[in-house]
Amino acid sequence: MSVPGRRGIVLALGNDILGDDGAGIAAGRQLQGRVPDGVDVVEAGFGGFHLLDHLEGYPRALVLDAVATGAHPPGTVLEFSRADFAPLASSPHYVGLPEILAVAETLQLDFPADLRILGLEVERIDTFGTSFSPAVAAALPAFVARAVSIVKEW
Amino acid sequence: MAKKHVVVDPITRLEGHGKIDIFLDDAGDVERAYFQVPELRGFEVFSIGRPAEDMPQITSRICGVCPMAHHMAATKALDDLYQVEAPSAAKKIRELAYDLFMFEDHALHVYILGGPDFIVGPEADPAIRNVVGVIQKVGLEVGKQVISIRRRARELVTYLGGKIIHPVMGLPGGVAKGIAKDDLPMFKQTAQDILAFARFTLQVFKDIVLKNDDYVKMILSDAYTHKTYYMGLVDANNKVNFYDGQLRVVTPAGKEYAKFPVQKYLDYVAERTEPWSYIKFCYLKPVGWNGFGEGEKSGVYAVAPLARLNAADGMATPEAQAAYEEYFKTLQGKPVHQTLANHWARVIEILYAAERIVELVNDPEITSADLRILPTATPKAGFGVVEAPRGTLFHHYETDERGLIRMANLIVATQNNAARIAMSVEKAAKGVIRKGVVSEGLLNKVEMAFRAYDPCHGCATHALPGQMPLVARILDASGRVVQEFRR
Q1: Rounded to an integer, what distance in angstroms lies between the CA atom of residue A48 and that of residue B131?
Q2: Which of B153, B250, B345, B371 has a CA between 20 and 30 Å from the CA of residue B8?
Q3: Which of A13, A17, A109 sits opposite B462 (nearest CB)?
Q4: Residue among B42, B58, B469 minimizing CB distance to A129
Q5: Is 0.85 exceeded by the ipTM?
Q6: Assigned CATH class of A8-152
């Protein structure tokens, strides 16, 4: 199933009522109107296998997401590409992007050859609320600007 | 020997909050263990002062996996809050959307999440015990069908729900949108294909799982067996229903213990905290809390597919009923206490959902435009319940006379199951930890114990896993790490 005439998709992930967890969603909203024609920006409050339904058919994809590695100061913008993914998670039960990519490859689905993830290191993701911690709020413009520069190359 | 504390903990939260704690006694044997149910903080504070009508949208954001379950429980709580009953056609639209969601989520579990254990096999080489291994076992064509039928079910949910993730269909007293007559043929076609797929799935389960003695032995294994109470929603004939009905509880011997409407849930369900965990463990209030034990004197109960089938007298559709009878016959009586039978029960529920979807799309009322009754009563308290894929989900709100939330209490499926999950994890851990020595396979055995319940990872909405890191640490009484297992 392909999406004719589309250059790519931006998938904005996260939960917009869970504090910093909404950083990806907020960035996606700020991207509206700032992306070239032929690029879809889609909010997705889900994860796992359902991502497959949305990525299929696009030649390029950029995923925006809050990340909590704990290895970087909050507000750090991190970039990952397909090459950075572990081949498959070591748990047989977990389904994330590496598994989705493996499934897409096995089933020979029409899947983005150019798949990148832009992550924003966050601070608080376990408490309900609609505001960001200061470091995340301060980093949002740079996060969005980096996303814009990526999709402008498409 | 100092007391030890073993922690199995994901390094990051990107794959959800699953975490296992295992406490050792002075002799180095397992004293108790528990699964850390993911908990998000501040939901009640966040809700207070908000209009109750917003709850179906707000609560559907709690979980990236089960938005429809929260949406529907909240919608039903609003019916109750405003003392208004939705028109018959609106109830059917809701049930149709709900059963489509249940079908899709269960199918995903059978093939993708549970598949590595049951389709590929628990003893298979780890290199193939994954989703790709599942596809290779069932074949590429079937793999494509799984992807496609799920997507089509989700498209119908999106049609009815407005949005797939945060549905906007449910309103107090009805639904926002019905099915246009012109679109009905599409619904009927998809429903037929869903039913065909459900039948096929039952056959796959029989061929791959039930014809393999090792799998059947594993299902029947004592390691994952607990004789507890079971709870589930039933219709007027005591048949399984996901969307509506009364809560029924059966004893470990399978006798009806209680049957009550959701408004009485606080008379039957109580929560208990333990000093060593922030988890609240649910138990049956009239029975009381008597520790993490089995039998009629322990208030521990279970929810989810296995429990639903145990708590009901049968299935409301013919093919699912036949599968239900075969299930209890093969597993030698009712109730079934073997936790791993959840996988089989889930397949039977897929068939029920599919048959019910076909019934609903062929119901003459399904394209009716009579979809809402406007509420006029003054709100005070509202209760809603549905059977989520992972078990019973309660919503309870209290409001002021303007309908602004004063109190919100939710009990999600995994909370209902928390005590029994702890018992399974403990049993699995006891099998691999003796006298302070942790033998091989701790992570696998313990993970299988809690995965059988398919516990919610409510906020696992993220894409980037890196690895699924499980870390088992053994800490002595002073908190010093003396041993660490990692993968």
Answers
A1: 12
A2: B345
A3: A13
A4: B42
A5: yes
A6: alpha beta
Per-residue pLDDT averaged across B313-341, rounded? 95
For residue B455, what is the nearest residue in chain A, using CA coordinates?
A93
Q: Is the peptide bond before A59 cis (omega within 30 degrees of 0)?
A: no
User: How many contacts (CB atoms, under 8 Å) link A and B?
Assistant: 160
Alpha-carbon distance of A44 to B173, in angstroms, equals: 28
Mutate to test the interface with B, among A84, A91, A115 (most CBs of B within 10 A): A91
- Model pTM? 0.91
Domain ranges in chain A are: 8-152
Please give, rounded to a whole number of angstroms, the shortest distance from the CA of B143 to a CA of chain A: 7
Bridge partners (DSSP) listed for residue A39: A8
Is B461 within 8 Å of A45 when comparing Cβ atoms?
A: yes
Q: Per the CB < 8 Å rule, is B468 touching A129?
A: no
On whether the CB atoms of residues B35 and B423 are closer than 8 A, the answer is: no
Q: What is the residue whose two structure tokens read 């409001």?
A: B399
Position A95 scores a pLDDT of: 64
Sole residue written with tokens 């049993």:
B427
Give B135's contacts in chain A (Cβ within 8 Å).
103, 106-107
Give me chain B's average pLDDT, please. 86
